[in-house]
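[job 0417] fold request received: Helix-turn-helix domain-containing protein
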Amino acid sequence: MMHMPVQGRSGSSVVSTTVLASVVYGLDDFIARLGAQPVHVFSRCGLEGGLRNAPSDTVLLDTYCRALDYAASETGAKNFGLWFGHQFAPRRLGMLGYAALSSSVLGEALDNLASFFPIHQDNSIVRHQKEGALCRLEYDVVDPLIHDHRHDAELSLAVFCNIIREARGPDWMPMSVSFRHKAPSCTDEHEKAFGCPVFFGQATNAILFSSDILSTPMPAADSLLFSAIKDGLLQIEATKQSLNQDFLMQVRRIIFDLLPHGYPSISQVAERLGCPYWTFQRRLVDAGFTYRLLVEDVRRHHAVKYLREDEHSVAQTAFLLGYSEGSAFTRAFTRWYGCSPRNWVCTRTATG
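[job 0417] inference complete; emitting structure tokens
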């Protein structure tokens, strides 16, 4: 069976990254097993709600990464993410895990893992590439706001190895493992966990293995289950997109209504929506926006609309868009469209 490189779908410009809440399952038990109090870890990073979420709900990846950092500190396990991933059963990934496990052969399982991973965790990429006699399975987070996700990267590659072990048996080992981050203090634990050489400071997070195992049958192959799981994942993707679009339209309308009274605060918009401030912030994150960028987007759209209608002067437009000074509006308009609003109006009038 020939496997071409597969790259998962990733968000192109979203601001924050979320992951399905299934990744939180078992985290409290593992922390407790290592002698720490899970409630202390979760309270420090605000992850308490994630433990009560349905598998289709999401948590912030940045929050999850902080929880792993805090867990390492509380338990004294410097390589907490590595060992949490080492014992993490793939089925606990929820639908993503079952999509891989119910595939027909290992190569297909890894292709499906790559294809569906961005639904499980947005702003992220998994690549499955065959290079002659070798295969690489790569993982990366492309959110520029997440700078350090060492524990997450080590956890993820350990779980990917466990998916392969479902087909090849518990003694299977990759040829090598690479990480982007610098070497931690206890690298001998990494070679023990993966059973192979481990390299740090590399171009990407990846596991390297022989391509001759790709045709290995998956023990839990089930075409009917896979079809149902695929439909479920695509439904999550469609639902998130639909809910986000409806939510953003509502927020845009509220911002537009408030702008003539000055720059609307995030608390004002949340109050109009009838939801707590922190819930509003969370929904914005899920939709891939920050509040500041959303206000600017509303202003940018309506600036041209007002000026095109010929009913409002530049000064009136600046006021309607919540600018206290016309100069601030001129600077913003120039940044958006490459010319001042007055020049834009003159050019439009000259060209009819």
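[job 0417] notes: Residues 274 and 280 are 9 Å apart (CA to CA). Strands lie at 6-7, 18-20, 58-60, 124-131, 134-141, 176-178, 198-199, 205-210.
[job 0417] exit 0
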